[in-house]
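Archive maintenance. Older records in this collection stored only the sequence; we are now back-filling the structure field for every entry so that each record is complete. The fields below show one back-filled record exactly as it appears after the update. Entries are processed alphabetically, and Histidine triad (HIT) protein is next in the queue.

ARCHIVE ENTRY
Title: Histidine triad (HIT) protein
Organism field: Amycolatopsis keratiniphila
Length field: 76
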Amino acid sequence: MSDLLTVERLYVLSLGSQQANRHVHWHLAPLPPGVPYEQQQTAVFDPARGHLDVSDDELADLARGLGERMTDSSTM
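Back-filled structure field:
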């Protein structure tokens, strides 16, 4: 998958609450290479850091590529 998305690490978060909206909801949060260690872990989720501005077309291409790799066992 490194040809599709190069990451330093991949965070998997399960968000939700037993009190409302009970369901399994996973977020995959790729961390780009080169982020200093002190800016990783929970620091990477600090809203003050901002966010990546990724176009809808780029997100669609990424989703399509990930989906193709999930259904093609030869790329795993």
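Update note: DSSP finds one helix and two strands in the chain. The radius of gyration is 15 Å.
Entry marked complete.
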